[in-house]
Amino acid sequence: MSEYPPAGDIPRGVPAAAAPASAAREWSLEGEGDLVVEPAGDGRMLTDDQFLLAYLREHDAACPACGYNLRMLGAPRCPECGRGLRLGLSLAFPPLAGWLAVAIPVLLSAGVGLLLALMLAAHGELPTERGAFMAATTYFWLTIPGAALVVVLRRPIMRAGAAVKAALSVTAAVLAVAAMVLLLKRF
Fold it and tell me: 158: closest CA among 89, 91, 94, 93?
């Protein structure tokens, strides 16, 4: 298994000759094979674009925008869609807390909606009265496709800013509690 250089061993933009001796060793990235990266022999560091192109010479990777295979790419631009590419990092396991704060109230509400739908199917009618009970029942039924939407839109929700996730989660929780209160007032 390869060893990564410790963070901070090679400051960005510092020539390899000026980097600490520990940074001059070979290192590689894990993947479908190892890409060995060495500081350039003439004291220059590989730029992000050079590193990206070196990686893509030996690995298959899809363009994030159009899905085109970028193997053997000659420039940091997708030849299919023309969008620029850059080297970046992402978390292997992104934090789910923001998405869960949105998903839990919506999924629980969808569960109540399914329960109400099963009661309707089994008994042919719900104990209804117009007004608040029907509004709550309608909300719970509408959250069934809403729950599917929250699951399908997991990534965009996770990528949204903290303020957006907070607004979505507070809105979902307030609506779920209000609808549950209206529903329980009937019983």
Answer: 94
